[in-house]
Amino acid sequence: MPAQDLVSPDRIRARFSAAMSLMYKQEVPLYGTLLTLVSEVNRQVMAMRPEVGEALRWTGEIERLDQERHGAIRVGTAAELATIGRLFAVMGMHPVGYYDLSSAGVPVHSTAFRAVHEQSLHVSPFRVFTSLLRLELIDDPALRELARAILEKRQIFTPRVLELIARSEAEGGLDEAHAEEFVEQALHTFRWHHDATVSAQEYQRLHDQHRLIADVVAFKGPHINHLTPRTLDIDAIQLGMPAKGIPPKAVIEGPPTRRHPILLRQTSFKALQEAIAFNDAEGSHTARFGEIEQRGAALTPKGRQLYDQLLDATREALGGAPAESNAERYMSLLAEQFRAFPDDLEQMRVQGLAYFRYFPTEKGLAATTHPDTLEALIEAGHVHYEALVYEDFLPVSAAGIFQSNLGDDGQAEYGSNANREAFEQALGQRVQDELALYAESERRSLAACAQALGLPHR
Q1: CA 16-170-420 angle, 5° bins
Q2: CB-side exposure of 285: number of CA atoms within 13 Å?
Q3: Is 3:114 a contact under the CB 8 Å cutoff?
Q4: d(CA 216, CA 108)
Q5: Which pLDDT does position 409 carry in this prediction?
Q6: What does the DSSP assignment read for 21-43?
Q7: SS3 state of residue 116
Q8: Which residues of 111-150 are buried (b: 16+ CB within 10 A; e: fewer)?
Q9: How many whole angstroms separate alpha carbon 378 and alpha carbon 453?
Q10: pLDDT value at position 272?
């Protein structure tokens, strides 16, 4: 098929993201309320802090802000994970990063499927945090075999979407009609199903082992368990949620409030209790919830080391995990510890703590001669820089969100069981290194700057 007849993966991803958002709004009306609150807060921030809007204009993120969202799903088998990887590939989404959540008492390991080039991210930043259930962590052999047998019987993909995935792989993409059909067929995998695939007793056994195990095993597919819009002020969201009838979780996950945000901050509302039909009885299940995020600067290995060190020190001073009972003290300790992390873009850049994008300025483009070093170009006003936005996730924060929605009795002890090799084997491909992707984006921006200014790029 001629390349010009194919719809770009970025456009398919944008369509799928919009369709997913509409579907989830119908399934979970509070998500629609959340979108309204986020939109209100973002408008207020842009009006009160024009420098925030200016930074977003430089980076091109202002165009993607309203469509920015991520989803999360949990699959049960290696075959499901491998096929979901092929499905996301049709939309230009690649596995980035490996996350072990078992050390936080959640029996899964995960990756994030997303676009990897900044131009693709500008078209659609949609990403899906995808977790694989680790059956080997179920300590009851009989229950482990029951879960395996249930999962082996199900098919979470429609026959037609499998045909369309194969077509895309064979022909290098999909034309307009097939792209539209693909979006419609792919949505079925992520829909909520009122009917469980197990008896009430089987569900309870799975649930007693871990609520998340029941959520993965007992249903027809990996229903999307949250969609997350991006806010420019998560503290305002946290304060504004109760007035909208949305009960927020006790603490915001991630770094503290800063003038220049770093990495990722997340909060959520508690999981909904939803009626379901077992094979032999009526019952209920809690899993799906609402989440909001604020994205900041992507940190270098040096910056991540400092972040991890300060977060560990906060939790050590707290003497346990943050919860409703110690939320105020935790946030105070967090702010105190993070005074050691510069809240200044220039210092973050000079100290090598974050990745940046560089842009030629009008002054630079108009100049006939230029200084010969990056620092001098910046000083002369010929080059402008902004922090690269963090596109990925934080294991501790992801676990915190999971656990806050599972309830206190959802805690479990699995120790640290990272097994990236087994995850990649199940996926059928390597996961990409997010730090290498940020470094490459920074290099591309420097090369584009040099080219625009007519300078040699080293």
Answers
A1: 65
A2: 31
A3: no
A4: 10
A5: 46
A6: HHHHHHH-HHHHHHHHHHHHHHH
A7: coil
A8: bbbbbbebebbebbbbbbbbbbbbbebbeeeebbebbeeb
A9: 13
A10: 74
* Cβ-proximal residues to 433 (8 Å cutoff; 6+ apart), any chain: 96, 97
Q: For position 111, what pLDDT does the model report? A: 97
Residue 400 pLDDT: 54
Token pair of 288 as six digits:
């799906």
Which of 453, 452, 424 minimizes the C-alpha distance to 82?
424
203 with 283: CB under 8 angstroms? yes
Helix (H) or strand (E) holding 268: strand 264-269
Cα separations in angstroms, 378 against 205, 279, 372, 398: 62, 67, 11, 37
- CA proximity to 135, closest of 66, 208, 76, 202: 76
Helices 176-190/9-27 angle, 10° precision: 40
Please give the Cα distance from 211 to 286 (Å, whole number): 8
| Of 353, 219, 349, 361, the residue nearest 285 (C-alpha) | 219
Euclidean distance between CA atoms 92 and 173, whole angstroms: 10
For tokens 């802090």, the residue is 49
DSSP annotation of 298: P
> Which residues, including other chains, have CB under 8 Å from residue 253's CB and lie 6 or more apart?
265, 266, 267, 394, 396, 397, 400, 401
The CA-atom distances, in angstroms, between 226 and each of 171, 193, 288 are 33, 15, 6
Using CA atoms, how far apart are residues 317 and 315, in angstroms rounded to an integer?
Answer: 5
**Which residues does the chain have with pLDDT short of 70?**
1-3, 396-416, 458
Q: Give burial (CB, 10 Å; 0-12/13-18/19+) of 420.
A: middle
Q: What is d(CA 325, CA 408) in angstroms, rounded to the nearest whole number?
A: 12
Whether the pTM exceeds 0.85: the reply is yes
**Quick one: which of 298, 301, 299, 330 has its CA closest to 317?**
330
Closest CA to 107 of 137, 82, 78: 137
Following CA atoms 340, 344, 346, 350 in sequence, which dihedral angle do they give, to the nearest 10 degrees?
Answer: 10
